[in-house]
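This section describes the prediction task in plain terms. A model, or a person checking by hand, is given the sequence of a single protein chain and must write out its three-dimensional structure as a string of tokens. No templates, partner chains or ligands are provided. The sample shown here is typical of the held-out split.
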Amino acid sequence: MTNFKGNISHTWSPRKLMGLPETYSRSPFGHGITNAVRNLFQKDIANWLKLVENPKQQLIVRLAAGYALALCGDPRISPFEPIMITISTINSVTLGLDHEQLLSTYDKLKSLGVELEWIEKECPSYSINLRPYRIAKYPITNYEFSIFLEDSQYTEIPTSWTLGRYPLEKSNHPVHTISPNAADAYAMWISQKTDRKFRLPTEAEWEFAAAGPDRLEYPWGNEFKDGIINTVELGLLDSSPVGCFPTSDSIFGVSDMAGNVEEYVLNTYAPYPGGKIINDYLYRICPDYRIARGGSFTRFKDLARNRRRHGRNPDSIVYVMGFRLAEEI
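The expected answer:
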């Protein structure tokens, strides 16, 4: 038991009040429980792997398989060998929103409380040369992030980890409620560990991996479909195991790009070539905010659009920010 020297203070963090270090420390139970559960259900793991991303299975079955895999240690998740998808782009690609589509796009979304200037950030469309690259099939998970924290002693513990406890029951869910600096630090750490060139994807790389050469509105097509991605409309109101929504994958096979958690990219906010700065509330309180892409379980379908540019509002808890990796080829 911890022996405090002197009086405790109400200004201390919860972890300090419990006698715990501010950096992440592994629970004596967390990974031990994972190993014990894996031993109990060893014969079932292969079956759960067949179910979790099978579009022929009902969503509730896929989710159940994902939650079971979380407790056992999901074989799909390998911190030092993440599943990467190669995007072989040729010459230039066109991204962003044409000015002519601004008002019609806004009209479709304004009932959700969307402001016109938020959509205007997507204008104008522009062309850019993209070199071939790889992008992670899944966002970085809680398990992967725990390995990073333990090995690197990085000091930022996700605020979604109650009292700094690694959520083993969500080991294969995307990590969220972290800063862009933590995401960058993870990419640098995994690069050093593997001798590979990992980083966060650029905005252009992320959007092309989601929209493809046909500039789709959503990863799966041009119309929103209820029940195929984890946004507020689904009603789960929590993160989900990665890959549980296979019919929402992009044409390249990248998962969870439209929902689950928002994803930081490499870029800070700047207008597109030929565009103007959008002086909205987020820009006024944080003009150098890091761009995020993709929807989340706390946000409506407007954020699920491939072109949507947004970022973390520090004044609100509904911004659940995660990330995925890109790799230079």
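For orientation: Strands lie at 84-87, 92-95, 126-129, 133-136, 198-199, 262-268, 290-293, 321-323, 326-328.
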